[in-house]
Amino acid sequence: MSKLKTSHIVETLVWLTIVAVFYVYSFEFGQEIEIYKFGATGWPRFILGFLLLVTLGNLLHLYKKGSEAQHGRVGITDQDEEISYDGIGSIQKILAILALPLIFAWSLKPVGFYSATPVFIALTILLLGEKRIKWVLGITLFIYFLLILLFMVILNAPLPQGNISPFYDFSAFMLTLNTKLHQSLNF
Amino acid sequence: MIDNFIAGSIALFGDPFSIGIFIFGVIGGMLFGAIPGVSMLTLAAILLPFTANLEPAQGVMPFAVIYCTGTYGGAITAILFNIPGAPENAPTAFDGYPMTCKGQSGKAVGAAVLCSAIGGVSSAIIMMAATEPLANWAISNIGPPEIFALVFFGLAVASSVGGRTMWKGWMSVLLGLLIATIGQDPVGGINRYNFGFSDLAAGIAFVPAIMGFFAVSEIFVQAEKKATGMYKAPKLSLDFPTFLELWSYKIAVLRSMLVGFFCGILPGIGATLAAFMGYGEAVRWSKNKESFGKGNLEGVISSETANNAATGAAMIPLLALGLPGGAMTALMVGVFQMHDLEPGPMVFYNSPELIWIVFAAMFYANLSILFIGLIETKTILYLLKIPFQFLAPMILLLASIGSYIGRGLVLDVIIMFGAGIMGFLLRRSGYSIPGIVLGIILGKIGEQNFAQGMQMVHYDVLEYLSRPICLILIIAGTLTILTGVYKALSYSLKS
């Protein structure tokens, strides 16, 4: 009897789409390389062919055994804990946790590291369930200054400064402070 | 050798500035390896411009030291948080993290400290004694076909561990290989799969991909548990393993040393494959295979001995042939070039003092793991006491900085978080994250050496297989695959 669930079909379709998209896209760079018989497409197409075969093997396993782990496999670090969402609230929460770092990364170019970071820290702490506002603010400031001390003051690492005012101005202010500190300490 | 070693030691410890750099490298490597979210590569990338004005020996030495201590440091995060500090620590997490969940973190970390030191020191001694003969052997016996064959065998081993099924193990490895095809092809330099992003022409950088798949995905997994009320804080324990307990694993240590050294000596392979193969061999020879992945100390011991044994060995192709064995040694090539030196056979004649200072520094760095590592470890174990909601943003930010610093591209930070989300979803479905990462790392090396090998033998497969080392590795890899397919099919078809 089939143990195939909708999630298994979606999983297989995603893999097949990856294979199809990468295969079709490989024609974009299909020109010959004079010194190499297999060209630039040979290696990726071999991988795609192999991937197609194992995807079908995986489908067979899903059909017969569902999500069951194969007997005797080693090194499975993620235990088979079934995560159950107790309502729309926890789904929204995990979606927000997944989206927040991406929004932070997108904001680095316009807003810059120095302005985006404290907001990101505070929101992450809040999303992860901390409700004591004093702790949220305290830990946000602590992490922010620790990172500034390590990467800006000690290591002088170049971090994104942003390109929109007033964020860019704030980054410039921070860097000026750092330069003055270095000069005063003869660092 | 002894005279040279003594001269190198005197040069290293005779100058206060060199001592300072050495200590900075030891502590910096351990800390950056052991802080979840950043790695020894982050520190090395930040330090690179600062070393330009130093003496060549002082410029090169800290990177060699960071390589040794950082490789050990990455084991701490793998064991405590299931976040390998570097890809070479990924197999350490297979058994190290389950040990932490069972309240045996001290035992796992203690074993990692000791085995890293044993693997590293023995490797450093062999490196000092045998760089020249080993390099000569490698020149005459190891070519692109052998390197490709080893990559093939390594990928076959990687597919057999980690995933919920053999199919998922292979799908993970193949996804990694596919990601590695993004960027220019290694033969003709033709752009592949850049999807209109010019920044992707250089390919997907290792560091953001590694940080995303390991660190960010783990944060998401734990955050999901927190959101659904299933989060359990890891247990702190400071009970280190006894000498007798470790002595019972002497064969595993010896085997992993040999595996690690062999993998390390081959150009382009490095410590990552060493760790996977050390772990794979431990499973293969064990009478208690079922216990691996559930908190078997032998898993931690095998992986950590092998990856540190590869550090010294990886210096042999770097120094004798000018070929890097991994990301860190590739960075060292840049350091050599910055000081107008070209790593390769001539460096032994042109700059023997530099070579012996580096050798001596690596020896003492590995030795210091044993002493400083134990003290540092006791402190770092207390990281487990920090509530997750405070640790998570710190790790995410450190990973962001680590990803950004390498190339100065915000795209790398986006890729890292994208990889984190992908890793989170794949882990939920039972795919192997270490398999993906190994695929990414070995993809380019495998393709390049396959192409060169094929050109060498004029596309004659029989000639390819007439090379003994190549034949043995290809047969071993094929047997591993066929056994895996047989087991997977018979399991799937069994009612």
- pLDDT < 50 runs, ≥5 residues of chain B: none
In terms of DSSP E residues, the strand content of chain A is under 5%
From the spread of the alpha carbons, the general shape of chain B counts as globular
* Most residues in contact, chain pair and counts: A-B, 78 and 95 residues
Distance between the termini of chain A: 72 Å
Q: In the residues of chain A, how many domains can be counted?
A: 2
| Helix/strand order of chain B, N-terminal first | HHHHHHHHEEHHHHHHHHHHHHH
DSSP helical segment count of chain B: 21
Largest sheet of chain B at a glance?
A: 2 strands, antiparallel
Outline the structure in words.
Chain A has 6 helices and no strands. With 187 residues, chain A is mainly α. Chain A folds into 2 domains: 6-65; 88-185, no CATH class. In chain A, helix 4 runs antiparallel to helix 5 (133-154). The mean pLDDT of chain A is 89. Chain B has one domain (2-493). In chain B, a hairpin with a 6-residue loop joins strand 1 and strand 2 (191-192). Chain B has a two-stranded antiparallel ribbon. Chain B has 495 residues and is mostly helical. Chain B has helices at residues 2-13, 16-34, 40-47, 56-81, 90-101, 105-141, 144-159, 166-180, 206-227, 243-247, 250-265, 270-285, 297-321, 327-338, 346-350, 352-380, 388-407, 410-428, 433-456, 461-465, 468-493; strands spanning 183-184, 191-192. The radius of gyration of chain B is 21 Å and the shape is globular. The interface between A and B is large, with 78 and 95 residues.
